[in-house]
Structures are given as C-alpha cells and as structure tokens.
Amino acid sequence: MAEPDGPPRRTLHIETYGCQMNVYDSQRMAELLAPLGYTQAGSSKDADMVILNTCHIRDKATMKVFSEIGRLRDMREERGPDGREMKIIVAGCVAQAEGAEILRKAPAVDLVIGPQSYHRLPELIARAARQNGERLATDFAAEEKFDELPKARKADGVSAFLSVQEGCDKFCTFCVVPYTRGAEFSRSAGSILEEAEGLAAQGVRELTLLGQNVNAFHGRGRDGAEWSFSRLIRRLAEIEGLARLRYMTSHPLEMTDELIALHGEEPKLMPYLHLPVQSGSDRILNAMNRKHNIGVYRSIVGKLRAVRPDIALSTDLIVGFPGEKAADFEETLALVREIGFASAFAFKYSRRPGTPAAAMQGQVAEAEKHERLLRLQDMLFAQQRAFNDSQVGRVLPVLIAGRGRMAGQAHGRSPYLQSVHFEAPPEIGAVAPVRITGASMNSLSGTQA
Ligand code: 5AD
Ligand code: SF4
Q: Which ligand 1 atom lies nearest to the CA of residue 352?
C-alpha cells in the first residue's frame, strides 16, 4: 500500500552468481531500486521481488539458474492466491545469452534483463506491473548504462568494487564473455573518479577496479585525452582516504611495461595480481586463441617480481581443453611448479554452445578431466598453503574490515588479499601492523604488533 510520505515499502532479494562484476552489478541494482521503496530482504522467502544475477561461464552455473527459477516458482505458489506477490527477474549473463529461451521455458519469470540494460530496471518493473511491458531487455549499450546509473553510491564497508571496463574483444575459443558482455568498453575517467571520490568520502579505504579485461582500460578523461590504465591508477591513488588499490581481471597481453613498473612505484597498488594463464602448453594456448604464449607469461612474471619481489600471483587454469594430451597437461603442472601461485582457480573445460572450442575435435572424456583437475588442485592447494605458512613470523599491514568472531578480535585483509583474524580492538578502516602467528589454507591469525 502506498504510504503518504514515500513509495510503497517492498523487499528485494538478489542472488548473485559468478564473478565480481556480478557482485558489483547486484549492488548497483539494489541502489537503483531503493528509491522505489525496495529494501533488502534476508532471503528469497521474505522477498516481494527476487533477482537472479546469473553466470553463463560454465555449464553448471547456467543449469543452476533453471533449477533456482523452479524453486522460486514453487515458493511463490505456496504463498497462495492471497499471499504476497513475488516478482522473479533474471539478470546477468544467462539473461543475455538465453533471454528468449528463458521466457519460453520458464513462464514464471516476469522479466529478463541483460547486464547492459539493468539501468532500465525501474521503468521495466513499472511497465511489467501494468501488464503491458516488454519482458526481455538485452540491449548492448554499456555507455548508456553508466550514464544513467545514479551518480552517488552508498558505500558498504571499507572495501568497494568499482567497475571501470566491461566486455571483451579477445575471443578465447572457450569463452562466452565476448557474446554475453559484448564488445570491450571503457567508462570515462571522469565518471570513475567521481564514483571513487564519493566512496572515499564515505570511508571506503580500498578499491578494487573491475573489468573482464580491466587492464585494457582506455577511457577518456575530462580533457578529451585517452587515459591508460596506469594513468587511471595513478590518479586514483591521489584520492585522500584511499589506502589500497587492486584490479581484476587482467589479460597478459595488456600488461604493459608502464603498468608493470607501476607495481614498483605506487605504494597504494597492492602486491597481488590475478593474471589468468589458462594452460602451460603453447599448443593449447594457441588453440585457445589466448594471443600469448608461455614465454610471454613467464617474462611478465619476471618483470613484476623484479620491481616488486613480494608480489603474490593468482591465476585461472582450464584442464581438458579439446585436444589437450597428457603431455600438455604435464606442461601445465610444470608451469605451476615453476611460477608458484599464492592462489588459483582451476576448472574443467566446459563446452559452451556457440563458442569455437565446442565444435573442436578431440573433446576430452569427463573422467580424464576430473583426474587432471584433482592432480592440478593438489598442487595448487599445496602452493596456497605454503604461501600462507610463509607469512608466519612476519608483520603485515592489515586493513581492518570489522569485528572478529570473538570479543576483542578484529578481521581484515593482508596486502596479499589473505583474510587475517587477530587480537585487537577493531578500529574499522585503520591499517594496523599485525604479527602473523598462525596460518591455515584460507586465512592467517596473529596479534597486533
Ligand atoms: N570452461 C571452463 N572454464 C572456463 N572459463 C571460462 N570459460 C570456460 C569454459 N568454457 C574460466 C577461465 C576464465 C574463468 C573466469 O573461467 O579460466 O579465466
Ligand atoms: Fe573470456 Fe578470454 Fe575475454 Fe577472458 S580474455 S573474458 S577468457 S574471451
């Protein structure tokens, strides 16, 4: 019911799948809907509207969406004819890739909205409510989206994501991103700085710049000139209050010497880099259309370590790409052994319809992929554990994010993105020196030094 002093009060629940770009988009959708009276519900059960912000990258992620739609439909039916309504909205990359299919297969869905169209959510929801609206919005104008999103963002905590670039023109043969997120596009430097300053003014101390190919950023400044990604980082580092900058995900091809050098020059740029390599075999990298070989990757890592010896590296790897022989996989293991990663994500190759690799000869049997994944993960887990163990005895600057599990405890992040729990009163937003006394697979513990 409408209230005299504002929009009707309704609740919204967003389920986010996939990458950090989706996490960012979910936050922006929530902000966009707040003026319409939507506050966040704790779960779908209590919500008047549920948005599934979906991921299309691998088969499993996509299948989850359809089973979740079924679950929500049942939940809505259980509320009965007199119960509250529940709008079901599908957003994100599955929406982009399979929009029409979703509407056909899942009539329970009220609205399908792609990642470049969600700035139109308020209008589309209003139209859908009048029963005469479009149910499918999957246009591809990223520029328009960033122009139309609210300028002022509400910060939530000491760390925030900031999307600077979207889309991809690399066309790796296994990947759906160039089709779901569209062509590579950079936001203007001016709008990024405005958003960053607004977040810093609200107490944000750490920014993670996001983009599918974040280091391909080439947005225009207010002066009309095209800015490099390094220039953007240097300018962001001048913002008072911001203590830490990070970025993801990078493509090796865009790791310019300028950007590598910046890792040795800019103290606010954290010594941690997620740099996907995908495979340790040049033959497979070529079939993947990665546009870099192992030599290029090795040389980037060498240069980074020369300017910032403590830099921690993270990566993505795929096993069982079509045509991957046992010898290729051994080369992947050898590369991992040689580089030494602080953390990594390993995936079984997933055949995505419409991508070139899906039609390639030499698809690898599921059992073989599974075995390779386990072997690779064993090595990666051991490296992650060893990296965490190597911090014991060091004093690390920790950005305090909140209270720890127990009274008198705080938790935060190390420069290397490790989660740290330590004994100290939580002074949220401060960067405190912490002596590391313990390490596990996923976190460190210590006491304030
Ligand atoms: N199969 C398996 N992994 C994939 N990725 C992207 N597409 C696929 C696919 N078809 C992985 C890549 C990428 C990460 C985000 O997901 O490693 O870097
Ligand atoms: Fe996908 Fe390759 Fe683009 Fe990364 S660089 S988003 S893996 S096509």
A: 10
Q: How confident is the model at residue 149 (pLDDT cuts 50, 70, 90)?
A: confident
Please, which pLDDT band fits residue 412 given cuts at 50, 70 and 90?
very high
How far, in Å, CA of 115 to CA of 106, rounded?
20
92 lines ligand 1 (CB under 6 A): no
Name the amino acid, one letter, at 20.
Q
Nearest ligand to the C-alpha of residue 289? 2
| CB 441, CB 385: distance < 8 Å | yes
Q: Is 208 in the pocket of ligand 1 (CB under 6 A)?
A: no
Average pLDDT, the chain: 92
pTM score above 0.85 = yes
The finding on whether 58 has its CB within 6 A of some atom of ligand 1 is yes
How many whole angstroms from 350 Cα to the centroid of ligand 1?
8
For ligand 2, is residue 290 a contact (CB within 6 Å)?
Answer: no
Q: How far is CA 142 from CA 104, 122, 160, 221, in A?
A: 26, 17, 21, 17
